[in-house]
Amino acid sequence: MNPEPPLRAWVRPPLTQGSAARQWQRIKERLEARGARHGRRWLWAGSLAGALALGAAALWVGARGGSS
Question: Among 14, 25, 41, 60, which is least packed by CB within 10 angstroms?
Answer without folding.
Answer: 14
